Amino acid sequence: MTAEKKGTVRVGILGLGTVGGGVFKTLHSNRETIRKRTGYEVEVTSILVRDLEKERQFDIDARLLTLYPEDVLNAEYDVLIEVMGGLEPARTVITEALRTGRHVITANKELMAKHGAELLAVAEQSGAHLLFEASVAGGIPVIRMLQGYLTANRVKGISGILNGTCNYILTEMGSTGREYADILEDAKALGYAEADPTSDVEGFDAAYKLAILTNLAYEAEVDLAQIERVGITSLQAADLELAERLGYSIKLIGNARETDDGLQLSVRPRLLPKAHPLANINDVFNAVTIQADVVGELTFSGRGAGEFPTASAVIEDLTALLCGESSIRRPSWKRRISGDAGAKKAQGNAWYLSYCCRPDDVQEIEVKVVESLLTQGAFLNARGEVAQKNGLVRQGWLVGGVSEQELQQTLQTLYKTGANERTAVLLPVEGEIVPGVEWKQQVPSINEALLSVRHAW
Amino acid sequence: MTAEKKGTVRVGILGLGTVGGGVFKTLHSNRETIRKRTGYEVEVTSILVRDLEKERQFDIDARLLTLYPEDVLNAEYDVLIEVMGGLEPARTVITEALRTGRHVITANKELMAKHGAELLAVAEQSGAHLLFEASVAGGIPVIRMLQGYLTANRVKGISGILNGTCNYILTEMGSTGREYADILEDAKALGYAEADPTSDVEGFDAAYKLAILTNLAYEAEVDLAQIERVGITSLQAADLELAERLGYSIKLIGNARETDDGLQLSVRPRLLPKAHPLANINDVFNAVTIQADVVGELTFSGRGAGEFPTASAVIEDLTALLCGESSIRRPSWKRRISGDAGAKKAQGNAWYLSYCCRPDDVQEIEVKVVESLLTQGAFLNARGEVAQKNGLVRQGWLVGGVSEQELQQTLQTLYKTGANERTAVLLPVEGEIVPGVEWKQQVPSINEALLSVRHAW
């Protein structure tokens, strides 16, 4: 794989934070490998920073640094690397670079999710390439897979753990039994969560990444409003414990699947059976499972964020340009996917339902749940309960053969009977579920049904 | 990604068994996708088969079929697809095709592991490409990753579950408690194992695949004799149960890692802690974890064999050729890696040791084990035992700070004390292990050490 010497490629960089620092250091540390395998020397000509005086953990020529985007654009460069994040000035500077025929490599998921089609069109017009492997799942080459590998294959569905912050929080809640707010503080202290964690914990970040993957897989452009989005803030440690007992993990999953009604897109916490390829992806790791028509199911996992994994994705985009830009395929995000999130609510028929109540109310609420399931033609798969520290009980049910809307109605009834509205949780369950053993015996009356449920547990 | 119409590519196929049938059917079913994305129509011009009269599950023009390799070479073709397996006539036909400038796509791991360098040299000389994604891990694009993605990255280690037959057998032994020979019969009935399973269960098949991955990652050529190879035939269901109790899975792992003594290569059953990315890969699934210097750890998993996953790999090699053969990098397997398996025995210092004995002998053998560990400066992490159906007991130990050779000596002593030599098992353990709680208290005498061990369990 040793390449002939081809010259020098000049690179401008926007941003010298965690990822930018990783890119700069790796261009230095792996210079010889890059030269040997691509034939090119990489020379950094200019770097946009926020603070010229900031102390950095590595040697850098101060003359490369500037506070002004124009300086980067006015320097000599062949490739622009954007690792600053945010919509502006990134959008303007990238547009200008592409317009003048320079290749751009970006790690900016928000920008690609919101303005990807527009930027790709500018690139196509000038003949430049816009690469964005680092925008999704850090160092995991899932974009390369969708864009460069699955060519004869048609993608049928995508499922991913796309946000490391949420995965860390859920993993810790499950393993320690501590609550969301506590773990979030730990995550901030460890640098896994930002001071304002909204984009992560409310699922915006995962939705940007899901949009990018969907755009690539379906050669379309998803409107972010089409993605049903539920964060992790209302989950209780007790839910993770109940799910575990029932044989499931709870993960925040970005999901795109083809249905008879078109493409269904969601980011929401889901119960995954332990044998699911994403069920054992823990801590800050990310993973993506792609379902395709010929190859079946492929899963890629690795570190989804951090200095070097993300820098790796940026630099491998650069080496791809250096090895043969002519063979890089242009994504086409042109066909608009119609509809909105409301119209394409998850059609799954297996659900996890949980709520808190006083121990005294347990039995009455159980009767209501079973009554409601019977009325809706639904069935019960399993049930569990854990005592919470506050003296309340959390009950969790796995139910099937029922829609989310119907279960919302069930919940309304339960609130009147004493279930705590503020702490109710309703999550989709992946995989087939079947009526539990006792349920199958054609329960003739509500009381007997309930009895059999208690018995089964 | 819609490409302009570029013409027709003519394909000859060697073999129309499971994979060949999958290739033929997919070229038909996904013809439109391939045409749209590559610009090419694919036309099959000739197929080498073993039996012209065999009934097939799909429509095929009988005039395409031939019993003679020369017919395939004499037909008009641009690309040769080899999915027949075995060394000959595959090697001769592929050499001839490459010599005359035709691209070749092969799924033949044995051929690539034994004669890859020779065939790649022929390809390089004529300007043709030899592609072999399907030779390792079925539909999982691990070769594409090593060859086309990890360019700035340097690979530091590879671990893989590379044989679906063994993974199926081990998974079933663990979940059902049934023994190897029983499960092997099931695997044969399900089509997961061949009539003669030697190549799979003794680790030859995994060694071929490990050699191919190592050759790519290290730009070298491994001699198969350099790979330490241990199969799964001596494992007992009780070992899987003991490992599970201790928090581990047992998997047949192909492993390449850099050590101070050079590259260490092995295929052998290993204990993986449950959090290891390969520990939860079950049934016939394959997975490969690559450790690289910038990106860290990446894991790819999916179906490692079967009609369509393997056909997918073959056809995606074809689409790679159609999308831009100029950008496909040539692997260089030139530098010989010196040394042999004996010289590079696994240097790990954590081990799982198990043996069968009569219940009456348990205590005496335990004393010997602890005595031996103390003498060797080793330590005990954990211990377990299960009663076997034959009235014997299987004891398993996790020990650290000791070499494999030293433990072999320990085993010799145990045999004299009543441990059954024929059923002893010694496996490397992945991950750090530390002295168990009681062991840490500076055991002053063997008897106390033993007491503390019993206590700890």
From TrEMBL, chains A, B:
SUPFAM superfamilies in the cross-refs: Glyceraldehyde-3-phosphate dehydrogenase-like, C-terminal domain, NAD(P)-binding Rossmann-fold domains
Keyword set, alphabetical order: Amino-acid biosynthesis, Methionine biosynthesis, NADP, Oxidoreductase, Threonine biosynthesis
InterPro entries per UniProt: Asp/hSer_DH_NAD-bd (IPR005106), HDH_cat (IPR001342), HDH_CS (IPR019811), NAD(P)-bd_dom_sf (IPR036291)
Domain Aspartate/homoserine dehydrogenase NAD-binding: 15-133
UniProt keyword Transmembrane helix present: no
One GO MF term attached to the UniProt entry: homoserine dehydrogenase activity
Family membership: Belongs to the homoserine dehydrogenase family.
Enzyme Commission number: 1.1.1.3
Pfam families, A to Z: Homoserine_dh, NAD_binding_3
Record's protein name: Homoserine dehydrogenase
Reaction catalyzed: L-homoserine + NADP(+) = L-aspartate 4-semialdehyde + NADPH + H(+)
Pathway as given in its UniProt record: Amino-acid biosynthesis; L-methionine biosynthesis via de novo pathway; L-homoserine from L-aspartate: step 3/3; Amino-acid biosynthesis; L-threonine biosynthesis; L-threonine from L-aspartate: step 3/5
Top-level lineage group: Bacteria
The keyword Plastid appears for this protein: no
Domain Homoserine dehydrogenase catalytic: 141-318
